[in-house]
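pipeline stage [seq->struct] | target=Ornithine cyclodeaminase | organism=Teichococcus rhizosphaerae | residues=310
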Amino acid sequence: MRLMDKAETEASLPWPALRDALRGIFRQGCEAPLRHRHPLPQKEAAEGSLLLMPAWQAHRYTGVKIVHVNPANARQPGLQAVHSVYLLSDGESGRPLAILDGGTLTDRRTAAASVLAATFLARPDSRRLLLLGSGKVAHALAEAYAERFPLEEIRVWSRRADSAARLAGFLAAAGLPARATDNADPTGADIVSAATLSATPLLRGAEVAPGTHVDLVGAFRPDMRESDAALVARASLFVDTRPGALAEAGDVVQAISEGAITPAHIAADLFQLCRGEHPGRRSAEEITLFKSVGWAGEDLAAAVLAYEGA
């Protein structure tokens, strides 16, 4: 069995190949139940979580991502709150094939899925990216968007100004046109990508200009949101998966509960976009919004790509 650490996992998932692998899994499909969540007792916090995200393609591969979320870890310097690994196995015999770094796999497949959606939904000439958030996923999003679009500007915002400045510095040192900004105003942005843990709207419908593509990554629970209902209602709404969005996507769930939209407002999911069943953006003036919560099929596609290319 192959053990792939963070560096090897990252090197095995280049952006173009990863987008192609995700496009393939959304075209072909696979079995991927909604994630299992089990509460874990914590000595220094109310509760932790064990998350299991399985997926399989008959006779080919099976995989499961095992995630521990331990909020109490934040009290211990240098210990992150989330740890995960991915186990890839032979789909016929069940023989374990590889264990990959789950955090790296998740960050990269999340960013690649956003950019895959943006190839259908953002204007091809998009040059200005506003990035809300400064964590690992935000870092991956900046790299993935810069690889695919002719970006001339990346503005980085975070509630913690020092964190935004640090990420902007890393990106600039890597040759990307990044700088920190002290507000989340979307004015002038062609693409706005948000990867935060916000429970209150950062983006409002009245503030987003025609032609903007909005990519919402962070609100993965019903009680979280990065946009107000007015933006969701104003935009053409796309999601990674309908079941996931209607069960977990706070931006969508709350807009429905507030009466701003109904489930029918979802124009298409990523399956339909990748299969050519919906054209995506229809005009240069259209506001498009992509809301993702993650799908275990993406993890499987990424793990297979990494394993077969290793």
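stage status: PASS
auto-comment: The mean pLDDT is 95. The two ends are 12 Å apart (CA to CA).
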